[in-house]
Task: structure prediction
Amino acid sequence: MRPEIAAARLFLGTLARDSLVQALSHCPDWSTLLRGSDPEGLTPLVAGVIGDTRGPFGSQANTLVKGQFLAQGRYQQFLIELAELLRACQVRGLLLKGAGLLQTVYRRYPGMRPLGDVDLFIPPQDFDRVDRVLRQAGYEVKQPMLYERGQHWVDLHLDLLNGHLLPSRALAFRMSGEDFLARGIALQGSLEGLYVPDPVDQFLHLSVHALKHSHGRLFWLVDLALVLRQCGWQELLDRARQTQSIRPLYYSLELLSEVFALEVPARARLNLLEKWYLRKVLARPRGNVWGEVITCLSVPGWWDRLVYLCELIRPRKRLVAYWRRLWPF
Result:
């Protein structure tokens, strides 16, 4: 068993400590361990687990954990400043992905998740106000919707599916940022003004995001495993049907079972293409880009699937409106 997977399984409670020690015994040195864990985004978790178990590489792991802990402190201060800016312009923001997870499922595990930019959903009508206040605070626009100041990055979202890149993805999944925000959980204290998705919304959004990136990094599965503990199965299933994300839901459950031996509430009957895709994910090849193609199975109707695939080949080309004018049905 790969050491990084063994560490993640111990963290999630599906593997004994002795099994992790045995997996580590086959790893010749720390740099070899990092070559396996870094591409999967699991290095902070692996270091935290190894430090707790006092196993091999304990000193290197503890050094990394301390650095990660300090980085998360700086990241949290960054979020506090961002909350102040949003309060100043009277806008509510929804923290997505890692930024939201750090306030919920990772609160008990500081420093064990990789950090990146802050993904922030804001209602579209509030964009001008947020854009202005970020520029006034010294942020520069590096790409559309991406703001940078020093080592801090804010990735603004006016929808949950990056519709400006692939408009017809909205045909596959019916996820409304406004609905997520309305159901969101308000943060308190210095983070007032920021919200995190409720667990069911968070699990489904993370499932769609992981599929979009072909489940290319295993730390996304750890995120899903932690969030799943907070979800009721029937509510998760009902909302997956409402948002047309039932297929990504079942892909997540299948992978959680196969990779981490996690007990999941249900497993679906998958077609041959889906089975092939998940086998490819489990083989962990680099450069797997089939997740977006598999997404077309969630698009209802063969005509709209063709539109989606055309946009996938030519991103940013808004073919949906044109297609509807030709075939208005």
Notes: The CA atoms of residues 172 and 298 lie 5 Å apart. The chain has one domain: 3-326. The longest helix spans residues 58-88. Residues 3-326 form a domain with the Beta Polymerase; domain 2 fold (CATH 3.30.460.40).
